[in-house]
Every structure is written in structure tokens, then in C-alpha cells.
Amino acid sequence: VKSDGRSGFHVFEDEMRSRAQDRNRLVNELRASVARGEFELHYQPICEAESLRPRSAEALVRWRHPTRGLLYPDEFIGVAEDSGLMEALGRWTLERACADAASWPAELRVAVNLSPAQFRGGLLFDSIIGVLMKTGLPPHRLELEVTESMLLQDREENLLLFRRLKDLGITFALDDFGVGYASLGSVVSFPFDKLKIDRSFTSELPGKPASRAVVASIMTLARGLDVEVTAEGVETMEQLAYLRGQGIDSVQGYLLGRPAPFGPLERARAVVGCK
Ligand code: C2E
Ligand code: CA
Ligand code: CA
Ligand code: CA
């Protein structure tokens, strides 16, 4: 409580005002950075569970902020979504990722996260075709990661978009599987190639019975649907061993490699194996 004699309400009002100002400043900085392309992609390997050979790398965006250094998506993706900047940032990300991947070994694919704004925009199909033509990346080397919440608005339209992209050879992964609120039926009616088990479950393996049950049921579901499963957030050998025992297809996490800029050295290492 402040001792300047002003009421709690005024203190609250001041706080709200300065928070709104902070946000406005962030939106303006973000707009300028999107125009100047002040972002970087870091890549994290996704490895085949038995051999630990990298099969793909997930592109994770970072903001090279003019004064605050490198910012992580949690600090700006939400703001970008709400301020209408995500479509432009998403397009930049997709193009950068495909251009990078075009110079990798041919067996290494790239996984790109899509945002709800990109889905809603209606321009996704054309912009993906454009990016593939421009970068020369073969469509089968691109995987798109989506979350369930972004599919269920305009469901029929999205299903059509999905099918058209899949016809090109692009694959789809359902991200953060298990944490959403959508009904199982409506999600699995989309022709996914892969389910990604959320880190919140992986991190509690193998000790926590509830997480073991979730993982086991995702594995059963995936076999029934004939889709692959990737576990995210694998940090320990125990987690890796447990997931291998469950028949997991691929693994991603700090144990295998942290997200990092993808330079020539990594490019060479990618052919040899994770870590
Ligand atoms: P996500 O798609 O679930 O990405 C995985 C996040 O988990 C990444 O955080 C990654 O750095 C982190 N991670 C990976 N392995 C481990 C691990 O073993 N332990 C721990 N503690 N964390 C691990 P990051 O890069 O901060 O990204 C956060 C989220 O931001 C992503 O979650 C994704 O939803 C979103 N995001 C990132 N890049 C993009 C993008 O280009 N476009 C869109 N639309 N969203 C993005
Ligand atoms: Ca992802
Ligand atoms: Ca994820
Ligand atoms: Ca996650």
C-alpha cells in the first residue's frame, strides 16, 4: 500500500495505464522488427528413438530485440497474435525455415509451427506454394505443426486446406497433444501424420502413474490411427528408456540437443547423429 494518501483505486488505475503503455511500446517495436526482419530461427533436432539419428529439426523463432537482446516466443507470440502481426511474422518464419532446410542434407526435414492467425488468414495455401517454389524445398521435407484449437473453427474449411497441402506431400503434426480441450473425435478426424506428446507429460515420466497412463493411451491411439508419435521435452536417459519401451518413434528434448542456430558444423553433425 502506498503512503502518498491516494486511494487503492488510483494506484490500480496507474498500474493499468502503465501496463497498457508497456504493451503499446512492445507492439510498436514488434511492428518495426517485423518490417526489418529482426528475428532468428533456432533449430532443435527430432531424432529417431532407437538410432538417435536426426530425422528433422523444429524451427523455433527468437526476436533479436534492438535493446533487450534475444527474446523467446513466450514474450512476443501472444502480442503478435493479438496485434495482427503474426501473419507477417509467420510468413517470414516459414520462408526462412524452408530456405535454411533447402541447404541441409536431403534426408533431414524441417518442422514449422503454424499460428492460429496464419490459419484464419485464408492465404496459407498460396503462401506455402510460393515459399516452396522460391526456396526450392521439396514439399515432402516440410512438416507443419498445428494445435487442436486452431483447427476447429471453420472445421470444414480447414479440413479441405489440410487435404490440399497433404496432396502436395507436406505432413502434419499435432502439437502439444493431450493438453487441449477439443474432443478426441474431432481432432483425430484430421489426417495427421504425427502426434507430439506434450512436455508436461514427458517431464513426469517414468515416476508419475497418471503421465504413464496418458503416454500409454496416446501410443495405443496412434497405433490404431497409424500415425507416428514424437515425445517432446525429453531431458533424461530414464525418460528416453521408458519411451523406447513404449515403442515411441522419435524424441526431442534437451537430452538430444537444445535449440540452436543451425550452422555448417551442425549441418555436418546432423548426418552423423544427435548430440
Ligand atoms: P512448442 O512448439 O511446444 O516448442 C517446444 C518448446 O519447448 C520450445 O520452447 C523448446 O525450446 C522447448 N523445449 C524443447 N526441449 C525441451 C526440454 O527438454 N526441456 C524444456 N524445459 N524445454 C524444451 P520455445 O522455443 O521457447 O517456444 C515456445 C513456444 O512458442 C513453442 O512451443 C511454440 O508454441 C511457440 N513458437 C515457437 N516458434 C514459433 C513459430 O515460429 N511460430 C509459431 N506460431 N509459434 C512458435
Ligand atoms: Ca511445436
Ligand atoms: Ca509442442
Ligand atoms: Ca509444448
UniProtKB/TrEMBL annotation:
This is Diguanylate cyclase. The chain holds residues 426 to 700 of 703 of the full protein. It comes from Bradyrhizobium manausense. It comes from the Bacteria. Coiled coil: none annotated. Residues 23-273 form the EAL domain.
